[in-house]
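TL;DR need structure tokens for one chain.
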Amino acid sequence: MSATESIDQALESVADALRGERRVLVTCHVKPDGDALGCLIAMHRSMIQLGADSRMYLADTAPIAPEYRWLRGLDDIYFGHPPEDAASRTLIAVDCGSAERIGNQDLVEAAPRIINIDHHADNTRFGTLNLVISGASSTAEILYFILKKLQMELTHEICEAIYTGILVDSGRFQYSSASATTFRVAADLISRGVDHTAIFHQVYETVTLAKTRLLCRLLTNMTIACEGRLAIGVLDRGDFESAGADNGLTEGLVDNLRAIEGVLVASLIYARPPGSVEPGDKDPAQIHYRVSLRSSSEELNVQSIARAKGGGGHNQAAGFTAEGETIDEIIAYITESVARLLDLD
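>> reply
TL;DR here they are.
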């Protein structure tokens, strides 16, 4: 994220707006990752510091992914149903590319005011006030600068939450969006007491046995295409049952495919639980597959592949939901799309 004058002014505008809020509901996208959860907690705690009556809400009822259950503050989240007075609160949406991704359209429509803070380039600017900085490594990085504008006390809980968001959405600081500014922010958080080694261990090196078994199933069901540059892994309902795993354990599995030598693009296709409903679903009775996409460089824009299917994300990390399609049809679509990206005949 470059410190241009226009970005500085935008950060100041949002900081001014937050100073004036007295009652807020902070939310993020469904199936939240480390960036979404980190921002949710950090924003909530910061609004309380400002003297606001703040609540956190997630439309999801599914368990938080194990990688993030150690984060402090999760017990204060309203899951599934927002607080009764939600419609009278300003809605602060963090790390959410569209209103649909919040997962509760009634809540969005009822909100008297929406402050939308995000770093997804395809953000729909659905807020009353929008701060979208697509060059930032993460929404957490943007939030750090907002809190600096607010002259907030960066408590240990807030620092841990922001660092986790940056770590996860920068791809462990390996994506091209991880700029010199990103590393300076991380360094400042560490200087304030963040134990970066412990957080890395919690997020990436504490793997349940069920997730390990799921990874084995994934690698068994892997397909290599596009002259060895594309790896696709599939997990069907039977794989989850055999591994004793739920869909919350899919976090990060696609990175194992991308790490294979010669692979430039990786995709994970997995079946959602029966009866689960997500924003944009047309027929809950259909089998829905969630598709995650990762690429090794900014030039290989997998976001374009996801967007064509109604999804979104970033150039190097994106995803979409496939409804009413077979696994073979999804694999064919991904293979053809990646072949075009790689300019293969």
